[in-house]
Design goal:
single chain, 248 residues, alpha/beta, 6-stranded mixed sheet, 4-stranded antiparallel sheet
Amino acid sequence: MIDLNNISVIFAKGTPLENSIFKGLNLRINDGEFVTVIGGNGAGKSTLMNVLSGDIRVHSGTMTLDKVNVTHWPTEKRAKWISRVFQDPLLGSYADLTIEENLSLAFSRDKKRTLKNAMESSTREFCREKLAHIGIGLENRLSDKMGLLSGGQRQAVSLVMATLRPSKILLLDEHTAALDPKMERLILELTQKLISEKQLTALMVTHCMSQALEYGTRTLVMHHGKIVHDLTGEQRNKLQASDLIAFF
């Protein structure tokens, strides 16, 4: 599903602040894999997400999604393939629009979008049905503005928004980092459920070692722009959070 071949990313190229984040990074992720990604600050985790989404252009190398070369595709062109949920619950949605309006816009994300057009393609019952699966009563608050929701509630809506339209890849950039433990668990369970139901290929960046092993099918450990450990199968199953901490 994802194939990064000899990817290089350089920030501030040609200046005294030039910094090479990736130097010939190679990564292949199979269709349907749920990969967790860990690493210290500056390891390249968010840069990897931005390369995949198209928010950062690579300086050399190629990237293919489902055998299609998308190396030079902009973010908006990749939107039909890739959806993303950010660490900050305020990103990815509109605080001054209602829950229903946000969902409607997300439903039209691979089309030319205006609020008028989005509303024509959605119904209140459709929105209510999608939110009811979360189980925290948001289906009864469709007319509430997103800005009135707690961080966890907003992240739950963002997850639903990211998976409304058919896509192939879900990027999760520390999407539970700002949540309390109870809401964190709910969001992670919802994440796993949606990935399974939608049969998505997923990458989840996390700083929590236990999450990195509890969720997904594969764990990547990054350090200074390199993948230093690629853990799968029995090797991964035998590890505990303390073992991952020892890698650092």
